[in-house]
Amino acid sequence: MERHLNAGSPSGELAGEACVSRYHFQRVFRDTMGETPGDLQRRLRLERAAHDLRQTPAPIAAIAFDAGYMSLEGFSRAFRRAYGELPSQFRKRLGADVALHGASLVHYDAQTRKLRTIQSKGEHPMDLVDRLLDNDYRAKRGLLTSALALTDAQLDATFFCQIQQVPWADPDKNLRETLNRMIDMGWWVSELFSSIGWASAADEASREKAHTITEMIARLDHFHTLYSPFVEYVKENNLWETTWVDSACEPPETFTYASLIESGLERGIFRRWMARQQLAQVGVQDGLW
Fold this sequence. Notes:
Helices cover 54% and strands 6% of the residues.
């Protein structure tokens, strides 16, 4: 099946390799595996597509074509039936499970680009990096959603007590600035992406400060689609100790990918804490935790 994943209908070729009729092969395959060759092939293609949505910046139309669909509409319908949401929605959720239910217990493994058998639900290992990144994204989005009803006066009111996070940056002056800094992709992400060509010119638009809460949510979602596939790429290829020289530092400093990702998570924890404190002070109660 692995060799025939990109073929048309796999039954004929597989039956020929087994030297039996197509009808006999399909019956034995279904009785043994619990699903027909065609059903297994379609499920594995969708699992591969789900992995590509999470781990690559490839256009959804290209992923649909690789999955054997001649139209984006057909792929979207099939994907929604399988995963309960559209491909564009699934792509935004870092922790979404890609393994679909299948009686054969055969699934697509993105790390090896091959098929493997999962004996039970409990075999899935907990990936701590995935969990931390997903929690960071969801928590930030939840805090921004909680701030949607605030007025400009509440967002721009000057803080009585201002806390300086790092020596080279001024303290936040108001809630709007706190929320903007909470979702900021960070200078190092922008410079790193630009230097390795991960995103076009490091996506210059993402460096701009957002004014409204709606703009902040859109900016956070956009950064998520760039950053999470990068982390998956680092994991899959074991690039944790790969170094990058930040020439903007004086003198230039060398960092590993692991230290940069860790720093981003630590910064996110502090930024979320700051946002929660300030949102609570203006009367927001729901969605802070």
